[in-house]
Amino acid sequence: ALLIIHPLMLLLPFGILTSIRKRLGPKATLLAFPFVLTAFEWLHGQSDLSYPWLTSGYALVHRPFAQIADVIGVYGLTFLIAMVNASITWALMFGTTMRQRTILLSSILGFLALWTAAGIIHETASRNLPQGKPVSVILVQPNENPWDKWQDSRQQLAVHMALSDSAINAHAKPDLLIWCETALPFVVKDSRYALE
To answer: What is the DSSP letter of 189?
Structure first.
């Protein structure tokens, strides 16, 4: 079911954009595109059916463009990707003369050049930061069915504790121990789990 339903969910923003195109035309669709796509990806990321690595902004990982993510986040990157693509489409569809198209496309290239330069400068500056003492880190990630972890939260906690104790006993004491993002399948402040 997940293999069928999830891809269909990813079609939702394009259904919305098709509706906008029918009602308001192609210019309104191009203007709405970055907002609709980014809003959908954010909403999708809040659901239990989300796969965060499917966010468009992750396409820029390991590229200078991605350096701005520390300011605008992955959804900001999604917005910028959609904005650049919509701008190129606008220039090609609605630039009535070659001069207009050239000006619009040159503006987009200028924006991309500035974005790239800012990313390279940020990346270079972060590489030149003074180095501190190394930190010892243990990552705990159980190999289990993700749906099973929601059945018994006490069992989930016990598995993480056992794996953590085993890792600490096998290695020197870490400076930092990290559990996976769904290690505690309940709200930590929930009074029912206060003694856990």
So the answer is: T
Token duo for residue 56: 């468009």
Angstrom distance (rounded) from CA 153 to CA 105: 54
- Output b/e per residue, 55-76; b: 16+ Cβ within 10 A: bbbeebeeebbbbbbeeeebbe
Among 40, 48, 49, smallest CA distance to 57 is for: 40
Q: Give the residues across from 177 on adjacent strands.
A: 138
Instruction: Classify residue 45 by burial, with Cβ atoms within 10 Å: 0-12, 13-18, 19+.
Output: middle
* Averaged pLDDT, 166-186: 80
Give, as one character, the DSSP assignment of residue 193. Answer: G
Contact 117, 96 (CB under 8 A): no
Q: Which residues pair with 139 in a beta bridge?
A: 178
Model pTM? 0.69
